Amino acid sequence: MEKRRLGNSGLLVSVVGLGCNNFGGMKQSLDTEGVRRIVHAAIDAGVNFFDTSDSYGQNGGSEIALGEVLSGGLRDEVVLATKFASPLDREKTTRYNGSRAYIMKAVEDSLRRLKTDYIDLYQYHFPDPYTPIEETLRALDDLVHQGKVRYIGCSNLAPWQIMDGWWTSKHHNLYGFISHQAEYSLLERGAEETLFPVLDRTGISLLPYFPLASGLLTGKYRKGQPIPEGTRMSMPRFQARMTEERLEVVEKLIAFAEARGRTILELAMSWLASEKRVASIIAGATSPEQVRSNAAAVGWKLTPEDLAELDQITGK
C-alpha cells in the first residue's frame, strides 16, 4: 500500500484509509467482534490510517470498539485519527463546540475510550460559530505540547475558515492544521474550485470522505432498476443524492471502466488516488471483504487521456 505524507508533517498515511463510522453498536453498525475482523483485514491489506470520531456510534461507541481492538497490541501499527466538537448529547444542544473547556474534556474522554495515551491526528469536526479560532488552536497547541495529540486537522470548514486558522497559527506560532476532511468524489467535485486553492496555499492535505458518493459509485445502483433493499440509498435522507442526472453519469462511468476491464469501484478509488492533494481516502467498510476490495481498488494508474475523458463525462 502506498504511503503519503500528511500535509507538511512527517506523518505517513496509507492512500486508502478506514472510516470507522460503522463501528459502535448502533442499529446497522458493527459490534466489537465485527470491528476486530475489519481492523485485522485492513492492517493485513496495508491500511494504517483509521479515522473515527467521538460522535460515531452510541455514546462514543466507535472509539470504544476501536480502542478495545487496538489495545490488543495493534496500537503502534496504526495512525489513529479522531474528532471533537460534535457533542454526544446532541439532543440537549445543537451547538458544535470548539471552546477550550470543551476540548480539554473531550480529549480525555477520547483517550479513555480509545485506550491510548496519544492521538495521532485530532480533528476539529465542525466549526463552532461562537468560539474564536485562536482559542481552539491554542487549546490544541497545548495538547500537542503535552504529548496527548501529535498533529491536528479539521473537517467541514469553509475555505475561508481554513485560511483563518492557517493565518492564526502562523501569526501566533501555534501548531496548525495539516489536513482537512471534505466530501470529494467523481460525482462531487465542487472542492476543486473552492477548496483546492486553499490547500495549495497552505500545504494542507485533503482527506476525502464519501469517496463512493454514498454508494452511487459502487455499481449497485443502476438507472431504471429498483433500489436494493437495506442499502443506504433506500433511506429517504439519502435519496435526494440519486438524481436522474447523476445516474446518467454513473452509467457512463460504468461503461468507461468496463471498456478497460475494470469496475466502477476501481475507477472511483483510483481517480481519487491520482489527485496529488489527496493523502488518504476515507473509505468505510462493513466486512473484511469490503476492506480488501477498497484497498485493492487503487491499483489502476489512470493516464492523462483517461483523466481528460473523465472530466468530460462528469462535466468538468
Automatic annotation (TrEMBL):
Alphabetical UniProt keywords: Oxidoreductase
NADP-dependent oxidoreductase domain boundaries: 16-313
Could you tell me what this protein is called?
Aldo/keto reductase
